[in-house]
């Protein structure tokens, strides 16, 4: 299927690794120009090389910036002032008991997970509306609707992104601009793969056995009973970013393998 993204420009925050990288590479494979972002210059440079090796000739621009800060968001806007697609993918997440999450940590999570998307959308939405064309996507989480009590600050900010996406979509009424959110579930990014390898070395269990145990004990409601790959999540984001998804607006679309026991 041709997603009709050729020649379009897509900005993906937090894209030197994980789901963000898979989304960026997916855009490049579809012939889109892509702007990748991360805080660490070396990691971002490596991601750019990896992307160019995967998609020779791809047009890839890298912006080193922490989008959780006003300066970082401004730097990203300056590097890519006009985009057809904005993917607010970046997120902080870490297990932390509720009682131990300080005010500073709550504020940092809001800055990185919510305010980054607010700042970039504030710049890009008006331009998209003026052009009557564009896509804004928020990468949220199953934890937005199934509260993850082991990292409540993460869960709450992920719920906020759903509200933000829906609210921004309301501002697109009668136009060809759409704003949607995607809810990934457990996904085997480089970080998760490394954790599985470490646990495998410690326990003597294979990665497959560890995965089966994780889903049986920690995610029993998952219908796929396995981790998604970043590419599988990226596929949905790419579709929603494409002109083919013109009638999906203001939606929270799940890519979580059925973990959330809900008909909607
Ligand atoms: N993985 C999962 O199982 C899962 C499940 C549900 C939802 N999600 C969601 O999917 C999205 C991506 O998650 P992921 O697991 O792919 O993340 P990841 O593997 O940890 O990758 C995070 C990427 O973001 C960059 N980054 C982090 N903080 C940044 C900041 N403040 N400014 C700019 N770049 C930043 C990192 O590079 P630097 O460190 O160099 O900045 C890296 O490139 C997140 O929104 C997450 O909530 C993931």
TrEMBL record:
Location of the Ketoreductase domain: 8-191
Xref: Pfam families: adh_short (PF00106)
Matching Gene3D superfamilies: NAD(P)-binding Rossmann-like Domain
Lineage per the UniProt record: Bacteria, Bacillati, Actinomycetota, Actinomycetes, Pseudonocardiales
Parts of the chain that traverse the membrane: none
Protein name: SDR family oxidoreductase
Sample GO molecular function, one term: oxidoreductase activity
PANTHER family according to UniProt: 3-PHENYLPROPIONATE-DIHYDRODIOL_CINNAMIC ACID-DIHYDRODIOL DEHYDROGENASE (PTHR43943:SF17), DEHYDROGENASE/REDUCTASE (SDR FAMILY) MEMBER 4 (PTHR43943)
Entry's family note: Belongs to the short-chain dehydrogenases/reductases (SDR) family.
Keywords tagged on the record: Aromatic hydrocarbons catabolism, NAD, Oxidoreductase
Organism, as annotated: Saccharothrix syringae
């Amino acid at each position: 299927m041709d997603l009709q993204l050729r020649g379009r420009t897509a900005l993906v925050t937090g894209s030197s690794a994980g789901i963000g990288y898979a989304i960026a590479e997916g855009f490049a494979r579809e012939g889109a120009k892509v702007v990748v972002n991360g805080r660490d210059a070396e990691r971002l440079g490596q991601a750019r090389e990896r992307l160019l090796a995967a998609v020779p000739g791809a047009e890839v621009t890298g912006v080193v910036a922490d989008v959780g800060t006003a300066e970082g968001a401004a730097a990203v806007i300056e590097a890519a002032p006009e985009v057809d697609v904005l993917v607010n993918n970046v997120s902080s997440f870490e297990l932390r008991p509720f009682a131990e999450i300080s005010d500073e940590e709550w504020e940092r999570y809001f800055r990185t997970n919510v305010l980054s998307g607010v700042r970039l959308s504030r710049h890009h939405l008006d331009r998209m509306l003026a052009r009557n064309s564009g896509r804004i996507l928020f990468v949220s989480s199953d934890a937005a609707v199934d509260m993850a009590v082991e990292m409540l600050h993460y869960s709450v900010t992920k719920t906020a992104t759903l509200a933000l996406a829906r609210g921004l979509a309301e501002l697109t009424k009668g136009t060809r601009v759409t704003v949607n959110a995607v809810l990934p579930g457990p996904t085997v990014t480089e970080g998760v793969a490394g954790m599985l390898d470490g646990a495998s070395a410690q326990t003597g269990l294979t990665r497959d056995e560890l995965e089966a145990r994780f889903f049986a004990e920690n995610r029993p409601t998952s219908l796929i009973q396995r981790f998604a790959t970043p590419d599988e999540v990226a596929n949905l984001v790419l579709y929603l970013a494409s002109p083919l998804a013109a009638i999906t607006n203001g939606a929270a679309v799940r890519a979580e393998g059925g973990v959330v026991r809900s008909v909607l």
